[in-house]
Amino acid sequence: MLLTVSILALLGVVASALSSRMGRFVFLLPAAASIGAAIWFGMQGPAVAAGAVLQERVEWMPALDIAIDLRLGALQWLLAMVVLGVGGLIFVYCAWYFESKTLASRTVGLLTGFAASMLLLVLSDDLIVLLVGWELTTVFSYLLVGLNHRSASNRRAAQTALIVTTIGGLTMLVGVMLLESETGTFSLAATLEAVPQTGAAAWAAALMVVGALSKSAIVPFQYWLPGAMAAPTPVSAFLHAAAMVKAGIFLIAALSPAFVELPWWRWGLVGLGIITMLLGAVRAMRQLDIKVLLAHGTVSQLGLLVTVLGIGTHASMQAGLTLLAAHAVFKAALFMVVGVVDKATGTRDLRELGGLARRMPLAAGAAILAAASMAGIPPALGFLGKEAALDAALGDADGGLMAIGWLAFIGIAVGAALTVAYSLRFVMGVFFGRLVTEPKRRSRALVVAPVLLALLGLVAGFGGDLISALLEPQVDAVPAGEDAPHLALWHGFTPALISSMVAWLLGALLHRSIGGRRRAPHGQDPLERGYHAGMRALDRLAVEVTGRIQTGSLPMHLTTILLVTVAFPGIALLLSGALTSDVRLFDSPGQVATAVIVSIAAVAVTTTRGRLKAFMLLSVVGYGVALLFLLHGAPDLALTQALAETVFLVILVLVLRRLPKYFTNRPLRAARYLRAMLGIAVGTFGALAALAALQARTGEPISDGFYRWAYEFGHGENIVNVTLVDIRAWDTLGEVSVVLAAATGVASLIFVRRPTAGTPRQTQSATGRRTWLRGAFTSEQLASPVLEMMTRLLFPVMMTLSIYLLAVGHNEPGGGFAGGLVAGIALAVRYLAGGGQELLEAVPFDAGKLLGGGMAVVVLSVIWPVLIGGRIGESYAIEATLPLLGEQKLVTTVFFDIGVWLIVIGAMLDFVRSLGAGIDLHSEQNVAPRPQWRSDRSLPGEGVRR
Amino acid sequence: MTPTLILAIAGGVLIAAGVYLLLERSLMRILAGVMLAGNGINLLFLVSSGPAGTAPIVGEDPEAIADPLPQAMVLTAIVISLATSAFLLAMSYRSFQLEGHDEVADDVEDAIVRRRAEADLSSEAYVDTSSDSDSESGGRADSELGGRPERETGSRAEDEEAR
Questions:
Q1: Does residue A935 register a pLDDT over 90?
Q2: Which residues of chain B have a CB within 8 Å of the CB of A161?
Q3: Does the model's ipTM exceed the 0.85 cut?
Q4: Which parts of the chain span the membrane according to its record (chain B) (predicted)?
């Protein structure tokens, strides 16, 4: 069984690829697989009929008690035969149906995948796996209905089908979870053995039934099925007639032994079934498109199935399953006939069809046989089933369930009459009467499958005893009713036969009186209208909610976030009592002085209108914080902060030269006070939270072990650096990714269209000026010989310092970040001395190479230990005695640090090159912004293309 | 453990000033706000790590060193702040280049949604699924897919494309 599912699934994956070589005959692959599997399943029939249950089990998620547990009982056997047998013939039919290669290749994979998931659905005993199959069929149905995605109406039909069945599927999922919470197992068989008689279990059953009804297009979900006829005809035959829509029926049949005695079960199912049956039949009478006519017929027949199964006795289970098989056979045959007619004449409109019986005798024969089965005319299988159904309803009426039995009986009889009428409408309208459209082409191969199925429906009618025997284990599972009589064509003049005959007569009369009408159907199903109104209301609600809460103003959004931060965690903080007065005022006098200066500078920033002044004050804050770091005992932080502050100052000045002198002023004074109040609130909250975090601490800090680990595992003495490159290397990996992204972002904001690589090299020194630098300014006005000379001397020193910091970082303050920043400052100096040209001399390639290379080094250094059998991120120390340097220890995490170093240098290069040389270029091209004199505005760059 | 009050106050002041600037519309002032608040938060990291100590380097007294873990976090935060500040700076420049100012305007898409909400309209992406029910009306039919003739040519065009 598992093998069949796997083979079909595999075929589904490869078939589309193979179709380029095999053309449309690729369909014969799944056809052969299905028919072969159907034969194997057929051979299991006798064993299954004897009550044996075949099981195969593969563990999937043992921790959650979820397994791929396939279980073949009588019910599963019947469904599997439908999926594989009918499906196999449909695959054969497809090979001659699809002509265009594109469509064939697209369809074959989806259709085969559908067959696999449908088989998984019916065979799975694990309800979760069953649901997986269930949802997979929904998805495949969506893709197949929307196969022609160019047509808007097809897309809409596909979407409706998807949404309706998915809502059902999700409801069912809730039901399954609820049931599991009662039974403690996901196994269907185990659930059925010991059904908990609780309210929760009843609710679970109801939720699962909702899922079943939506899948099988029962009122109030019936409207998606006619729309799904947008799919190609073989797809409709397989999914929307034979197999997928039977999934709900299957579930009801599987659950009914357990839940049939629930008070609402019989009433609900019989009631909804009859409504669906009559509604579908009446609407089928009005259709002009023969495919849509059959679709409404399918809705009606599914209603019949639910009605019969809903009666919930031995006899009704037997009748329902017989009808299920009969319907799969005749409806698939009828759809395929529609495909044949459609291919031959190019139309499916009843007004343009008629009299085809002489031209297409085989198709007509198949249609007549199949329609006879549908209408319940002896000796077809459909007759057998319908008689049994009427009998079961009556038997029920006698056996104590009076009202339901009579209701079902009358419903089925009226439904039968209507079925006769629309069957006649179909057969007479297409094959008899005046010939309207001459068939243009005929394909004999196309007729094979429907003829075979139609014959099967006829022959099976004589096999009543056999069918009864095969279904017995499932029939006996139902706890109610007397033993079901064996199916037979002749029972004598029973009330069932009499009512059948009345139904034929009424149906024929109905067809005579209104069957000839050819008016286009109008008006829409109120339920369908309700669905669309619901979808529209949902969309409107989304618009209203979004329009109200998402105003699009950045300050407003931030205010909301900050207010929530202060209000909820803030109140929780005050109420929790975590705050105590246990504080130390300060650690050292220097700390107090620095903190005061920093605070004053910060407040001053807020009131400053001058751009440069504000950022100078900001630098005071930055360097002050560096000092506070140092005083706290964090030399690494102090070093990095000071370097970062310096780099920022440089690039800030590079940008400020093209910006207006003053900030834009916000005119509203009231808003300013509100902002100040919010700021104070957030600041207070932050400070209190930090105090409370330490005061409320009860556990030992996790960093207590770092002292030991740093040396033992990280082989380094600088604990902060070892933390970065080893203990918490994943964090650092994420953080350098941010740096990389930001650097790339800066470059792309400045060099909007052109790559960041340098400008073409100019020939050296037109004036013949002797310079200290190869790429120095050629113009005497720009050049500063002193700066050039200083740069010439400083650059090597700074680069050496950078490498030194990188090298010692593992044991002393320093590391890749600090080293990279020093290199960045060195590059900035080169730029200041000689402009973009000099920068190009320093690094004659794109910064992206440094960034990408650094990232590669970082990632490789994290994962390489795996290659030698270590763990990801493991570090090793190699000790060696080198000449001159003495005994040295190389720790492998140094490569990680080198990667970080490269990324930081790359980022710095990007910053200086973009904000320095890039803006220079803008100025030359006259696209830089032009600040107004003593103003907060500038003119946009001239000729900037957006 | 006992936190240090003066550091917490300094951190709080920096955050307050930062938030005040953050609620501006000028990108440059927002940038200043982000940087101030970032520095403030870095200080609060130190507060929550306990008292000042000696540098966390093996060889110092293990009892006297400052907590290294918050330091590692703050260190990467510093570099990330620098990178994002540079990015904001470039954005502000670009804004000046295009508009002549760097004020963050209200989001246009959000304004459209708001207008649609006021006019009681559905969203732009909404497709009315009920308007067309051509599958219900007479089957002007098809060879391979239910629907219109245009799709046959469509699939042929796609065939061409595939080759």
A1: no
A2: none
A3: no
A4: 6-23, 30-52, 72-91
